[in-house]
């Protein structure tokens, strides 16, 4: 099983277009660090797509152990991105899903069969 870690952007944007399950088709489980969970679910609680993200039983929230690395990375990145990178190193992740992955929404919709 591939270890896949996601930043908030792919989750939020796919949920907005009702294609969050697109990720489930390709990956059995998506790991999300606590900061990404906070950004998607807690800070975004007023957004419509939050319900879809909360219902995604195939996501797994994981706490980053290496907080020193997170602190170093937050000098240049936000805390969610920093935790994604730190967690990918800790877990030996195979893939990171991040914001630029969604820069071609027409391609994504095409691949999703729309």
Short recap of the structure:
The chain is of the alpha/beta class.
Present the secondary structure layout:
Layout: E1 4-6, H1 8-16, H2 21-26, E2 30-33, H3 34-42, H4 50-55, E3 59-62, H5 67-73, H6 79-91, E4 95-97, H7 105-111
Parallel strand pairs: 1-2, 1-4, 2-3
Helix pairs in contact: 3-6, 5-6
Overview of the structural elements:
- By secondary structure, the protein is an alpha/beta fold.
- It has a single domain (4-107), classed as Rossmann fold (3-Layer(aba) Sandwich), CATH 3.40.50.
- 50% of the residues lie in helices and 12% in strands.
- The chain has 7 helices and 4 strands, in the order E-H-H-E-H-H-E-H-H-E-H.
- The chain has helices spanning 8-16, 21-26, 34-42, 50-55, 67-73, 79-91, 105-111; strands at 4-6, 30-33, 59-62, 95-97.
- It has a 4-stranded parallel β-sheet with strand order 3-2-1-4.
- The longest helix is centred in the C-terminal third of the chain and has 13 residues, at 79-91.
- The model is unreliable at 101-114 (pLDDT under 50).
């Amino acid at each position: 099983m591939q270890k896949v870690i996601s930043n908030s952007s792919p989750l939020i944007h796919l949920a907005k277009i009702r294609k969050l399950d697109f990720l489930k088709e390709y990956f059995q489980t998506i790991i999300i660090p606590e900061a990404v969970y906070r950004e998607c679910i807690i800070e975004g609680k007023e957004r419509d797509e939050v319900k879809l993200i909360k219902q995604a039983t195939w996501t797994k929230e994981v706490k980053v152990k290496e907080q020193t690395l997170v602190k170093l990375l937050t000098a240049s990145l936000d805390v969610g991105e920093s935790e994604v990178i730190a967690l990918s190193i800790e877990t030996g992740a195979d893939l990171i899903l991040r914001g630029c992955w969604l820069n071609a929404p027409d391609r994504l919709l095409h691949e999703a069969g729309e």
